[in-house]
Amino acid sequence: MITAVEREVSVNLEAVRQSIRAAAERSGRSPEAITLIGVSKQQPEERILAALSAGLRVYGENRVQEAEGRWPRLLQAYDGIDLHLIGPLQTNKAKDAVALFDSIQSLDRPRLAAALARAMDALGRRPACWVQVNTGEEPQKAGVMPAEADAFIAACRDEYGLPIVGLMCIPPIDDEPAPHFAFLAEIAERTGLTGLSMGMSADYEVAVELGATHVRVGSAIFGARPGHGPAG
Ligand SMILES: *Cc1c(COP(=O)(O)O)cnc(C)c1O
Fold first, then answer.
1. Mean pLDDT along residues 70-76
2. For ligand 1, is residue 200 a contact (CB within 6 Å)?
3. What is the pLDDT of residue 228?
């Protein structure tokens, strides 16, 4: 017996995968070059279990504590899960993040780089790191400012010895996302980074057309987050 929730999540997942394939083909890219990250933050466990049953193995969470409440059990029960931290990380949570996540996408300041380097040494685990760039230069938003991005990326590699694999951005809510995605791709190109984490439920197809290697899709797979609406 398949439940209504299992059916809904697996239909959504297939539709998103299909749209990614179509966007990749439109832009002459291989669909295999794009990783779909299912953003499970704030979702009921039933929906995450449905996605796991449908074969999704890559997940994104935006809070360390919330992820710690859910994923250790699921990691015991399912093989091959790849867990990404996509939300802001406090320095005092760096060790917890290194212990749980396979990728940390929100690296954006020297103190955090230093804390991650220390945590990696202490734990003997080296999650892939992504530098978040505040492409819209929004004061309230996380991410390194574009003018400081190149120097910060160099410091992360050379000074802190972190495994930097790519860049991440969240465009301003009211802006056309395409110029932000193109801008992020440009910074990655000139700094020799191949990973591009960009695109959410509303704009992942545009992101794929502009070179995203990882798209972070929540509500289009799992449905609206309870109590927060689609953007919450
Ligand atoms: C919540 C969130 C997403 C997913 O948002 P949806 O609109 O539900 O797809 C992607 N990236 C980050 C950083 C998020 O916090």
1. 97
2. yes
3. 58
143 lines ligand 1 (CB under 6 A): no
Does 211 sit in the ligand 1 pocket, CB within 6 Å? no
CA distances from 115 to 12, 68, 89, 156 (A): 38, 19, 11, 11
* Secondary structure E strands in the chain: 35-39, 58-61, 82-85, 103-107, 128-132, 164-168, 195-197, 214-217
pTM exceeds 0.90: yes
Whether pLDDT at 229 is above 60: no
Question: Residue 230: its pLDDT value, please?
Answer: 46
- Residue 163 amino acid letter: P
Q: Taking Cα atoms as reference points, which of 44, 52, 97 lies closest to residue 74?
A: 52
Concatenated DSSP letters for 124-183?
T---EEEEEB-TT--TTS-SB-HHHHHHHHHHHHHTT---EEEEE----TTS-HHHHHHH
- Residue nearest ligand 1's atom 4 by CA: 218
CA of 158 from ligand 1 middle (Å) equals 31
CB of residue 168 inside a 6 A radius of ligand 1? no
Asked if 114 and 88 count as a contact pair (C-beta separation under 8 A), the reply is: no
Question: In 3-state terms, what secondary structure has residue 99?
Answer: helix
